[in-house]
Amino acid sequence: MMREKYKIDDTISKSTGDIRLWHTEKGFIEINNGTLAISIKLGDQEKGCIFHGHGKLILDTIVETGEGAVGKPIEKELNDPFLMLGDTEKIKQHFSVATKEDFARFGYESQKGFLDRAEDLFSRFFKQGIGNTRQSFSQDHGFVFAFQNQSSKLDILVANGSKLLYTAEDVVFVSNENNVVLKVPDEVVCSNNRKSVILRKGKSVIIKK
Fold first, then answer.
1. pLDDT value at position 107?
2. 92: which of 42, 46, 105, 191 is 20 to 30 A away, CA to CA?
3. Which residues pair with 12 in a beta bridge?
4. Burial 143-157 (b: 16+ CB within 10 A, else e)
5. Contact assessment for residue 171 and residue 55, using Cβ atoms and an 8 Å cutoff
6. Does the predicted model carry a pTM greater than 0.85?
7. In the chain, what are the domain boundaries?
């Protein structure tokens, strides 16, 4: 999946209500009313969007083991531009054309300001993000999200059916039905429906549930 095959459209829309972009039992991503959006296209087909507004990411990254729960939920306020690749057909009806007042609400003097920030995120994603997610993402199924963090890098979420991958500076979480891997500073937990393995500073503990 190469960057040169994708392009950003030049029409900017806004959401006309709160929208859940992705939702499973593991969590959800939603945007609020008035969020700006610009399409990402592959040829003539819409393959995703870049959003800027207000929203939220909630992700359950807690792993239950025989020693108790490990990890904590991810809760992230989405106030900076973020990127989504995936099916946009279900959300299209909830958008209308953005106006100058909509751009001003998020600090842009004109449409060009948002276009420039979207292009910057788009380029960074294809340099950092897509190289790490290429094997996990199908162009026809699933979603990839890229969120900016305080270190000017990108946190990546890949969701495809029961498969889930979230990678950020201080956490990596992989889930596929009953198989879960959680990596946090100084600790790695691997769990399935029969047992858990916890690695702490080079020491391993096998726990049968």
1. 93
2. 105
3. 38
4. bbbbbbeeeeebbbb
5. no
6. yes
7. 3-164
Q: Is 155 in contact with 41 (CB distance < 8 Å)? A: no
AA identity, residue 189: V
Q: Are strands 179-184 and 172-176 parallel, antiparallel or unpaired?
A: antiparallel
**What letters, b where the CB count within 10 A reaches 16 and e where it falls short, cover 1-10?**
beeeebebbe
3-state helix, strand, coil in the chain (%, to 5): 15, 50, 35
Sign, Cα dihedral of 117, 118, 119, 120: positive
Q: How far apart are CA 139 and CA 18, in angstroms?
A: 26
Structure-block tokens of residue 29: 């991503």
| Residue position matching structure tokens 């979230």 | 166
Q: What is the distance between the alpha carbons of residues 75 and 36, in angstroms, rounded to a whole number? A: 21
Question: Residue 20 corresponds to which tokens in the numbers above?
Answer: 């859940």
Strands 63-65 and 179-184: unpaired
